[in-house]
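TEACHING EXERCISE
Course module: macromolecular assemblies
Task: Read the component lines below, then compare them to the predicted structure of the full complex.
Student: A.B.
Group: 4
Components provided:
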Amino acid sequence: MPEGEVMAEHHEINAVAPSSLKHIVGQASVKAQVEVALDAAHQDAKKFDSALLVGGPGLGKSAMAKVIADEMATGYHEVIGQSIKFSSDLNALLLGAKDRDVCHIDECHEMPKQLQTALYLALDQRKLFVPGPKGKPQSIPIADFSLLLSTTDEYCLLQPLRDRMKLVLRFDFYTDEELTTVLHQRSQALGWAVEAEVQPLIAQRARGTPRLALRLLQSCRRVCRAEGSKTIRLEHLEKACGLETIDALGLGPTEQQYLRILGEGPTRLNVIASMMGLPARTVSQVTEPFLIRVGLLVKDDQGKRCLTAKGRDHLSKSGPQRD
Ligand SMILES: Nc1ncnc2c1ncn2[C@@H]1O[C@H](COP(=O)(O)OP(=O)(O)O)[C@@H](O)[C@H]1O
Ligand SMILES: [Mg+2]
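Instructor-supplied answer key:
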């Protein structure tokens, strides 16, 4: 996505993505760590140090992994933890990489524990053991590639694997200004016209998360094109939010339902999760962090979830009960 270049119009938000560190908005401390590691790797003509990328969904872990490979000018291999079910899946990844390539395992905490063990043993020994002729184990050397592991939950990874990662890159939520920059940069690269007042309003509804900001931008674009317009305007944002039941804080139907449950009084996580029909882990890791961060929700000493004054105020302003 070179700066200043006039791009052809694209229709899909992911048709373009950051391709160098300077296109990554915000995350100053992650970027500073990556810059030092890239400089060190270039000075010594060696691979990028292995790294654990930690942070909530949509905060830019995969984007950064790809940018690291682009900055290293090496091959990039990405797999998702859920797809590594058997040793053969892991072996295919490890044997497909060349020296200095970047191998990224996204959602690596989803890998079975015995394959996490096989992974760190393979890294230590730089070889794999596979069944050879007549079932005799055979060792195959693996290339000196760089391993990047992304996770939303670092404590679900085996500690020996976590400890072998030389860098830990922690991704945080973005400010509204940073999200406005992400939206501006992406709409320019896509060749989409957006009225200046709209991008900050999308940013405010994106819960500090680039993926949500870009998703809402795509929804606005859909409404805009459906109406035969060329420029995304405020009315398109309002209609998109109405269609997707997104409120002024960017809360979707799931978070709105969560707040309505708490409107009845302090409640335990397991009770909330069963009322919502979601796993408790999803509620605590996906639904709650933003609500806590913006001060709508607190946990009391017994672990019950309670609305704050701001939470009650937001709930009273939102529409009628729909459960
Ligand atoms: N700091 C950033 N600057 C620009 N775009 C970003 C940034 N972080 C994320 N994005 C974009 O947001 C979307 C979601 O990011 P992604 O890397 O898939 O998140 P994660 O892997 O953490 O779930 C992608 O389209 C990505 O290009
Ligand atoms: Mg990812």
